[in-house]
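User: Hey, quick favor. My workstation is busy. Could you predict this chain's structure for me?
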Amino acid sequence: MTALTGTARLTRLAVRRDRVKLLVWVLAVPGVAAAVAQSVAGIYGTESDRIGYATTSAASVVARAFNGPVSGPSLGSVVTAEAYTMLALLAALLSTFAVVRHTRQNEETGRAELLGSAVVGRHAPLTAALLTTLAANVLSGVLLALVLVAGDLPVAGSFALGAAIAGIGVSFAAVAAVTAQISGTARGANGMAAAVVGVAFLLRAAGDAWGTVSADGMRVVSAWPSWLSPLGWASQVQAFDRNRWPVLALTVGFALLAVGTAFLLTAHRDLGAGLLAVRRGPAVAARGLLSPAGLSWRLQRGVVLGWAVGVVVMGMSMGSVGEEVDSFVGENEAATELIAQLGGTEKLIDAFLGTMMAMFALAVAGFVVQAVLRLRTEEAAGTLEGILATAVSRPRWLLSHLLWAALGAVVLLALAGASTGLGYGLVSGDVPGEVARLTVAGLVQAPAALVLAGLVVVLFGLLPRLSVALSWTAFLLCVLLGQLGALLELPQPVLNLSPFTHLPAVPAADPSATPLVVLLAVAVALTGLGLATFRRRDLAIG
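Assistant: No problem, here it is.
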């Protein structure tokens, strides 16, 4: 038996387990790219529009930091600038989660020990996880290129962008392979990998923000920090402009180095343990942990605090560019009309701020799904069984987790509004007024996020083993309908499927109580239905 014995069978098992998640992943990335390409072609249809976009993006430090360096006025370059950040983060995070799920999480739940009782080599589980993630990234990248070619974009540029995005996924899959050896828990491994993604984003953003604008004013030469990040390497390919394929060698070299390190670390640790020892807790639990609500807060607080830091940073950044909206859009009537349509007003800055609040609502919905799915994690790991063996009832346990998910969503949306108001207030000269106005705008978004929380509870109660995949699918549909529904001119009945469609676009529009009350009633009804179904089913462990 070699160290790789059983790799093929474990790979087939991983594909079998993740068949729904992989399908959503492989289709979602090219789907987003196709939708962005179609919308950009409509908004920036003429060369003069694209020249205006490229010139403004190259001159704006904020646009360079968030979208990456623009590479000329071609349609493909504008599509790349508009879609790059979303596609890159999707590929990076989906890859890290997949590798950790098939390595560290398997060891945490005991599946790896069961598999190890068969004829399985020491490196087979990690190799199978990496092969599965590699295949998903390659397939997703090829489909991304094909949909762009189908949209009349150049073949070489389309495949360069597809390869760059796939390279990001492969790079962070390799990072996750290392963090899975370092941390003793799946949460820790995911947290470390996500932190590396965050650092990579900051390095790329700093390098592009400090970059220099070319003589024609439509391109940016990135500074050195961008070359320290896998996210920066992908943008340096300059798809649809120079198509610099040799830059991808950096991605291949980084991935090989990280994977080699992961295999080396695998040989120096015990099964089920990470290189960093898990700290033992105190002999006596704190008073706050002696109730379901206290224990839930202990399990959720790290996620809430992490999201809070990210929301505040993004809010300050978005608010500080409010004054640039007029110059960024320029005289492009289509872009002006689009922002006004999204924001529901002719006052461009309020429309922009309303759109930002809607984006924060979708982002916080991601937190809500993550927090509520902690129910399923506790059930699958078997820890719920021990809790229910005490005097804690099922409704009390479920509602304790839901409490922090709902409160966390409300607090995060208030922070999103307040930080955006602070950023915009500092540049407009009215900090108290803007903080108060946009905090209300943020809180108005909460009922839709709570509806999604209720839906996750229903899925957890009815279909526990499918609840994770279905919940994230529902979230992804909300994101696609919210971000691209108006651009694609989808029928209103389709848009109405998302609870976020029914929110008033505050501050561009006046807050209306009726949709908020209806959404809250739907959230309560869904939660009650989920609670009732959970009380009547058996536990689904594993």
